């Protein structure tokens, strides 16, 4: 791998690679939650991540945008080392502003939506472009309106999150992430907190996004979505990637006993 | 089942309500007490309403009331700003900052405000000169404390420093009440810590902070009467001055209460609108 590594900055130059994880480890206290994750996500790829609760899926996703610090290994997004700068063989932590700048390009959607409850749906979508990118109010509003229309909520722009259903809130959350025009979208169980009849409307928005070529890493229990929309499927258990491949094949014909046991429970 | 009972079981219910004799007894007792109070206010000469009216808008009383108002405003504004700073220190990852804030709160909440105000009034004895310069090194400018420092400043500072200790705990509780997912969502969007605090965390914390802050402000209005310790002239001090030569003690004290009630009522209205503003977006 060192052949690809630019020693001046620690960035890797690999055409078309959006995420590259190399032996990523993460500990909480004495517990090792990620035990050497190796993964590659190509530009435009939709990677679905499945696995039992507590297997480290959320933690891995949070490492990708540096909400968690990686303890060992390396992680690159769009060729840039996440959270650090490399000079020689020394790593330097990035300053807060630099980390924030890296995060702009990575959108994240949470299981519990995490909309800002004191702002209307439209204000939720406008906030980050205005604060982070210094966009004018008019420009931010115009794009926020477009995005609200795109997620099918043009009639809900003035509503506060508490006045929206879970499915509507999650669609606003997707619009909010898209407003920063990210290169990569991370979804952490985006439909797990939803009533069953509301799951479809969120998956529809995500399907459209995938069709438009967005690179996505999706932690999900929706095997139908993984099979239909996913380009690759990763099965995690106990902080390691147990198995990965084309979703249809992994789901139909899992190779590992742990994958088989998990799939037999959820399918 | 007799024929009379079988109207229809699906129709609207017409039941005999439960009687509450205790409520009637309580209501009568309250009504009697209220009548006694009104009777006392009207017939008891000792209130001397005419005397009160004479002084209600007297220049000395108006000036004292003005002092009470600005002291309250200054103490609350200063207390809130310093309180936010202390709350952030308390929540800091830096143990030195956390310890300093804890020590501050411990001292200022653990000693009486009246005693603190006495000290502020005599601060010149503790620090005869004030200077600007290098700590433990040379001073560039120095001045006599008593020349820089007025009774008004002593009163305001005393109230601000005390209030900040209480506000710090209120603000800290407010910040901690905000869901951790809010910080995460803001970080994921690329907001810096300061931006997140200012635009996301504090506005939500305000919903929790506003009601007790309103109560603090109303307490402060009344606590300004303690700056007599400095000493500084405010409403209670002034009516004491007046009755010390008119001997109309009760009329002057009741008149002061009327002013305090009027001002605290205004503040309660303000508190209502403040709570409504920061409650936006929350289902009631
Ligand atoms: N902030 C944290 N502190 C301590 N332990 C944590 C923290 N976050 C996650 N964990 C632990 O790490 C493990 C993996 O968690 P997580 O990544 O959330 O799993 P998943 O998303 O696959 O359910 C769990 O055992 C969890 O308890
Ligand atoms: Mg999870």
Topology:
The complex is a heterodimer of chains A (about 270) and B (about 280).
Chain A: E1 17-28, E2 31-42, E3 46-50, H1 57-64, E4 72-77, E5 80-81, E6 84-87, E7 90-93, H2 96-104, E8 106-109, H3 121-133, H4 137-150, H5 166-178, E9 184-188, H6 196-211, E10 215-219, H7 223-229, E11 232-237, E12 240-245, H8 247-252, H9 257-266
Parallel strand pairs in A: 3-10, 3-11, 8-9, 9-10
Antiparallel strand pairs in A: 1-2, 1-4, 4-5, 6-7, 11-12
Chain B: H1 21-43, H2 49-56, H3 59-90, H4 95-110, H5 113-121, H6 123-126, E1 129-133, E2 139-144, H7 145-148, H8 151-177, H9 180-188, H10 193-223, H11 235-246, H12 249-278
Antiparallel strand pairs in B: 1-2
Features:
heterodimer; A: alpha/beta; 4-stranded antiparallel beta sheet; 9 helices; globular; B: about 280 residues; mainly alpha; two-stranded antiparallel ribbon; 12 helices; 2 strands; about 70% helix; binds adenosine-5'-diphosphate; binds magnesium ion
Care to give the gist of this entry?
Chain A has helices at residues 57-64, 96-104, 121-133, 137-150, 166-178, 196-211, 223-229, 247-252, 257-266; strands spanning 17-28, 31-42, 46-50, 72-77, 80-81, 84-87, 90-93, 106-109, 184-188, 215-219, 232-237, 240-245. Chain A is α/β, with parallel strands linked by helices and 267 residues long.
Describe the protein in words.
- The complex is a heterodimer of chains A (267) and B (284).
- In chain A, 36% of the residues lie in helices and 27% in strands.
- In chain A, the strands form three sheets. Chain A has a six-stranded mixed beta sheet, sandwiched between helices.
- In chain A, helix 3 packs across helix 4, helix 3 packs parallel to helix 5 (166-178) and helix 5 runs parallel beside helix 6 (196-211).
- Chain A has 267 residues and is an alpha/beta fold.
- Chain A is globular.
- The N and C termini of chain A lie far apart (38 Å).
- Chain B is mainly α and 284 residues long.
- Helices cover 72% and strands 4% of the residues of chain B.
- Chain B is built from twelve helices and two strands; from the N terminus they run ααααααββαααααα.
- A two-stranded antiparallel ribbon of chain B has the order 1-2.
- In chain B, helix 9 (180-188) crosses helix 10 (193-223).
- The longest helix of chain B has 32 residues, at 59-90.
- The radius of gyration of chain B is 27 Å and the shape is flat.
- Chain B starts with 20 loop residues before the first helix and ends in a 6-residue tail after the last helix.
- The A-B interface holds A 65, 67, 96-97, 100-101, 103-104, 106-108, 110, 112, 114-120, 127-128, 131-132, 160-163, 173, 176-177, 180 and B 179, 181-182, 184-193, 195, 199-200, 203-204, 207, 278, 280-283.
- Magnesium ion binds at residues 57-58, 188-189 of chain A.
């Amino acid at each position: 791998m060192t052949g690809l590594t630019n020693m001046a900055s620690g960035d890797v130059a690999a055409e078309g690679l959006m995420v590259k994880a190399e032996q990523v480890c993460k500990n909480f206290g004495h517990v090792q939650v990620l035990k050497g994750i190796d993964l590659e996500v190509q530009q435009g790829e939709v990677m679905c991540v499945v696995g039992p609760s507590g297997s480290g899926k959320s933690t891995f996703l949070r490492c990708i945008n540096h909400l968690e610090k990686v303890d060992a290994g390396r992680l690159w997004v769009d060729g840039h080392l996440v959270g650090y700068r490399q000079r020689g063989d020394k790593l330097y932590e990035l300053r807060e502003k630099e980390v924030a700048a890296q995060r702009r390009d990575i959108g994240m959607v949470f299981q519990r939506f995490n909309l800002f409850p004191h702002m209307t749906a439209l204000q939720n979508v406008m906030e980050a472009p205005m604060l982070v990118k210094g966009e004018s109010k008019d420009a931010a509003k115009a794009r926020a309106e477009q995005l609200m229309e795109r997620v099918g909520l043009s009639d809900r722009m003035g509503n506060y999150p508490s006045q929206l259903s879970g499915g509507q809130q999650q669609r606003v959350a997707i619009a909010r992430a898209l407003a920063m025009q990210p290169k990569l979208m991370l979804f952490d169980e985006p439909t797990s907190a939803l009533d069953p009849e509301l799951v479809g409307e969120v998956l529809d928005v995500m399907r459209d996004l995938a069709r438009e070529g967005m690179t996505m890493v999706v932690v999900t229990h929706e095997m139908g979505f993984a099979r239909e929309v996913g380009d690759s499927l990763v099965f995690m258990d106990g902080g390691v990637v147990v198995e990965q491949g084309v979703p249809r094949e992994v789901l139909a014909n899992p190779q590992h006993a742990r994958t088989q046991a998990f799939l037999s429970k959820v399918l | 089942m007799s024929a009379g009972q079988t109207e229809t079981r699906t129709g609207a219910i017409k039941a005999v309500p439960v009687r509450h004799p205790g409520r009637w007894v309580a209501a009568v007792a309250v009504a009697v007490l209220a009548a006694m109070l009104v009777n006392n206010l009207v017939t008891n000469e000792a209130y001397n309403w005419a005397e009160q009216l004479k002084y209600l808008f007297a220049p000395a009383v108006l000036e004292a009331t003005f002092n009470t108002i600005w002291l309250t405003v200054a103490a609350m504004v200063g207390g809130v700003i310093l309180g936010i700073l202390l709350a952030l220190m308390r929540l800091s990852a830096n143990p030195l900052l956390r310890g300093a804030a804890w020590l501050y709160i411990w001292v200022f909440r653990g000693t009486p405000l009246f005693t603190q105000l006495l000290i502020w009034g005599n601060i010149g004895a503790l620090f005869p000169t004030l200077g600007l310069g290098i700590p433990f090194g040379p001073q560039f400018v120095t001045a006599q404390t008593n020349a820089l420092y007025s009774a008004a400043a002593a009163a305001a500072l005393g109230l601000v420093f005390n209030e900040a200790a209480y506000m710090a705990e209120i603000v800290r509780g407010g910040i901690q009440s905000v869901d951790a997912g809010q910080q995460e969502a803001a970080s994921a969007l690329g907001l810096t810590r300061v931006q997140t605090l200012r635009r996301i965390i504090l506005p939500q914390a305000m919903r929790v902070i506003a009601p007790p802050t309103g109560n603090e402000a109303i307490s402060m209005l009344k606590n300004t009467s303690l700056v007599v310790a400095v000493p500084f002239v405010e409403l209670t001090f002034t009516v004491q001055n007046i009755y010390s030569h008119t001997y109309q003690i009760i009329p002057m004290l009741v008149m002061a209460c009327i002013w305090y009630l009027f001002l605290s009522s205004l503040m309660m209205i303000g508190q209502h609108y403040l709570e409504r503003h920061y409650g936006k977006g929350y289902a009631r």
